Amino acid sequence: MSKMWSISVPGSTANLGPGFDSVGLALGLYLKLDVTLQDEWQFVHHSSHLPVEIIVEDHLVYQVAQQVAQKFNVQLPACKVDMYSELPLARGLGSSASAIVAAIELVNIVCDLQLDEQAKCALSSEIEGHPDNAAASVCGGLVIGATLPNGELHLVNEKQVDAAFAVFIPNVELKTAEARKALPATYEKGYAVHASAYSNLLVAALLKQDYALAGQFMEADLFHEPFRAHLIPNYETIRTLARDHGAFGTSISGAGPTMISLIDSSKVDAFVEKMQQYLPDYTIKAAHVDTQGVQVTVQNG
């Protein structure tokens, strides 16, 4: 009798404007892996959002899984991994972070590591380089995270987010590395004080569930959006259209080029329908907040 593990990982949006590299939110768009043990490694992709060409040794899930196994000094057995994804690559919806979280979970289950949620967050954040996307995919809900100078990761996780989001996905990619090159190396002190104050107000508004206020500060970022806006197709057009049709606020999702609007949950479907008329070349989706994070089910076959 063979055993199959199904791993489901939510995608995520990061920053929400000024919460740069520290605020993440899990979205109801998923990466799913079906994992079975076999004699040799094999990846099978079942989604247009995943690469057609597959080289096992270059696969992100394989590389991270091997890295995790080495870290914990365990022998990782070969697996067949069937992958299904609702997350387009290099669009600012946490596709790489979800793959990292999935790889950690794969090793956790097949090698019986028994990692708890904090350990998964710390490990995925270390590999990803910051805690926003990765921790949101692990925990679900809204995550605010920071790492102290001693390397200790601290997170605040709020599951109750009574609002919805609409994502504007263009048919172009933007690599995170390219988007980071657009940022200044340093910020003048007064400028940084204003930028961090806007981030503080964004987080406070989200935790108070004051989404009208949160939307204002989504659009007030000084850390990255002023420097990346020229890389994002229709940046000002989308913000203006969204605001005119009831969005609380709109920002770049992660490093972009996807943009995301905060909407009253009762109005999001009508909002998406209207936006699609204005932007027919975009894939525009309503996205609820995932509150479960990474999930594993076991099937015996």
TrEMBL record:
Q: Which GO terms describe its molecular function?
A: homoserine kinase activity
Pfam families associated with the record: GHMP_kinases_C, GHMP_kinases_N
Q: In which pathway does it act?
A: Amino-acid biosynthesis; L-threonine biosynthesis; L-threonine from L-aspartate: step 4/5
Domain GHMP kinase N-terminal: start-end pairs: 60-141
> Where in this chain does the record put each GHMP kinase C-terminal domain?
203-280
Q: What does this protein do?
A: Catalyzes the ATP-dependent phosphorylation of L-homoserine to L-homoserine phosphate.
Report the EC code(s) recorded for this entry: 2.7.1.39
Q: Which UniProt keywords apply?
A: Amino-acid biosynthesis, ATP-binding, Cytoplasm, Kinase, Nucleotide-binding, Threonine biosynthesis, Transferase
Write out the annotated subcellular location.
Cytoplasm
Query: Which annotated residues bind ATP?
Result: 88-98
Q: Which organism is it from?
A: Kurthia gibsonii
Q: What is this protein called?
A: Homoserine kinase
